[in-house]
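Ops channel
N.P.: pipeline sanity check, posting one input/output pair.
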């Protein structure tokens, strides 16, 4: 009996030790993941900083042929030479190359907000299609482009203006979205899947405070033709991306979209311009068939503006618009 009882105690002790070890490992892993999510500065070479009045990342995508992340910024160039058609190239370690990647085929690029992978090694890029601070919407702010690498440059394969889309009944983009027809349009998100381009609106939101995702069928064909045919742009769905704050619920718009191989979508979100601040944006995960997205991570005081799959396929890379301060980025685990 004594030997039996001692055996039981040893087994219980071993089980407790194993459980404790597993718990410790889980806590360590969770802590490592949390530390990994803390944004750090993107290294900006002095020469690049001198060539740009500000660097405000608003979209990111991995370009395997270059071994670099391509990052679009709200603006490029100096005060004397604004809106240069180019994107920045970032290493796996979070450092910008000294030389940007030029975009060939256009003379100006104003307020680019998102870039994503397309078919056949191409990329799609969109500007905001929004009015500037003076209330004007110039052609260079109303561009949806398809691009292809030529060496260390991007060549325009096709382009169109999303605001020319109609629903077949004469209604424009805002009518298609089902939002206030007099609202201020702000497009900040695109992602490609199943020969369609999903387009996320930062603004306007619906009357209920939800953000809208549109769907452009056969985007490469539309951009090659230079026009969006009636009915090609449709309403995909709406998503509620509210932030809970002490002062109440704050509605968020979509700042970027990312399609994952399993059919789910990762969303960057923060509050639209001119609306109550959310105190910092967040990233969400929308599972296939789900009614609402799941909050993955809040970033207090920061604006996550771009998200893509990391070059090794094992995580997410997120970039932040840090206004006039040094640009930021981070890596997060893939949602499961």
């Amino acid at each position: 009996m004594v030997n039996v009882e001692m055996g039981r105690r040893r087994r219980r002790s071993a089980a407790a030790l194993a459980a404790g070890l597993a718990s410790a490992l889980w806590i360590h892993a969770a802590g490592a993941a949390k530390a990994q999510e803390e944004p750090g500065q993107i290294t900006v070479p002095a020469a690049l900083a001198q060539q740009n009045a500000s660097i405000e990342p608003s979209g990111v995508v991995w370009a395997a042929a270059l071994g670099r992340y391509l990052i679009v910024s709200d603006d490029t160039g100096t005060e004397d030479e604004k809106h240069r058609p180019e994107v920045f190239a970032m290493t796996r370690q979070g450092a910008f190359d000294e030389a940007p990647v030029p975009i060939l085929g256009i003379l100006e690029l104003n307020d680019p907000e998102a870039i994503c992978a397309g078919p056949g090694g191409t990329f799609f890029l969109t500007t905001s299609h929004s009015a500037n601070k003076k209330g004007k919407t110039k052609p260079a702010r109303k561009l949806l482009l398809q691009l292809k690498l030529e060496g260390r440059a991007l060549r325009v394969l096709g382009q169109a203006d999303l605001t020319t889309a109609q629903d077949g009944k004469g209604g424009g983009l805002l009518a298609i979205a089902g939002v206030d027809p007099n609202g201020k349009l702000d497009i900040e998100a695109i992602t490609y899947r199943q020969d369609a381009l999903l387009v996320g609106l930062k603004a306007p939101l619906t009357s209920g405070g939800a953000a809208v995702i549109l769907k452009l069928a056969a985007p490469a064909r539309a951009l090659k033709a230079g026009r969006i045919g009636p009915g090609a742009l449709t309403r995909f769905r709406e998503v509620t991306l509210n932030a809970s704050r002490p002062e109440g619920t704050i509605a968020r718009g979509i700042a970027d979209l990312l399609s994952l191989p399993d059919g789910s979508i990762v969303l960057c979100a923060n509050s639209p311009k001119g609306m109550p601040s959310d105190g910092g944006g967040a990233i969400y995960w929308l599972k296939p068939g789900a009614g609402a997205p799941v909050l993955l991570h809040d970033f207090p005081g920061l604006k996550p503006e771009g998200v893509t799959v990391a070059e090794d396929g094992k995580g997410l890379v997120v970039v932040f618009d840090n206004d006039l301060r040094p640009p930021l980025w981070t890596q997060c685990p893939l949602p499961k």
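N.P.: looks fine end to end. Confidence is low (pLDDT under 50) at residues 1-36.
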